[in-house]
Amino acid sequence: MTEIRYLLPILALPTALLATACTDSTDSTEQRLRELEDRNEIHALVDNLAAALEEGRFDAFATIYTPDVTAKSPGGEAAGLDKVIALAGRNHSDQQRSPHYISNVRIELAGDRAQVRANSLFAFVPSAPTPGRVAPEPFYAGGGTYRFDAVRTPDGWRFARVETAPLWTVGTLAP
Questions:
Q1: Is 61 within 8 Å of 92 (Cβ atoms)?
Q2: In the chain, what is the straight-line distance between the N-terminal and C-terminal CA atoms, in Å?
Q3: What is the rounded (10 degree) CA torsion for 147, 65, 44, 26?
Q4: What is the pLDDT of residue 40?
Q5: What is the CATH number of the domain that holds 155?
Q6: pLDDT value for 173
Q7: Other beta carbons less than 10 A from residue 8's beta carbon
């Protein structure tokens, strides 16, 4: 019995270490899972933005941006969701289609905030068919970068800031 009494303190340390390792592993797994979920939700915002711009569904911006979002683009600057929608609407109309391809999305998470950078290719194409062609030719196209500040809100992740910077363009954007 005396021998067991001396062994208990020796066995207590490995037992405590094992318990800590199991807890840390579980916490680490949960943390990694949370990070993957956050990245997925933020990436979905980028995809939803591209679809909203292509389809002219600016009402979808309410599920992409915060109410106090700020935007900066070659078309101007805006603060507040309604003004950002108006800014986007000036360059996107029913008379044209505008496919947006946003890729190479990089997300730097920092708790309930994230910085996002992505590359973009876009084109502005007349909506009306062009006689003798399979599809209309774009009158304006370009490529550049998007930068977003994302924040976790009670409704999920949203972009609080967006900035677009063209690196190249071809053609002329209609006034």
A1: no
A2: 93
A3: 90
A4: 98
A5: 3.10.450.50
A6: 78
A7: 9
Q: What is the mean pLDDT of each run of 10 residues along the chain (175 residues)?
A: 57 58 71 96 98 93 98 94 94 80 98 98 86 86 98 98 97 77
DSSP readout, the chain? Answer: -HHHHHHHHHHHHHHHHHHHHHHHHHHHHHHHHHHHHHHHHHHHHHHHHHHHHHHT-GGGGGGTEEEEEEEEETTEEEESHHHHHHHHHHH--TTEE--EEEEEEEEEEETTEEEEEEEEEEEEEESS--TTSSSPPPSEEEEEEEEEEEEEETTEEEEEEEEEEEEEEEE----
> What is the pTM assigned to this prediction?
0.80
Among 136, 106, 138, 135, CA closest to 122: 138
Token duo for residue 137: 């030719």
Q: Are strands 140-153 and 156-171 parallel, antiparallel or unpaired?
A: antiparallel
User: Which two structure tokens, joined as six digits, stand for 73?
Assistant: 């683009």
- Residue 12's pLDDT is 58
Main-chain dihedrals φ then ψ at residue 101, nearest 5 degrees: -115, 110
Count the domains in the chain: 1
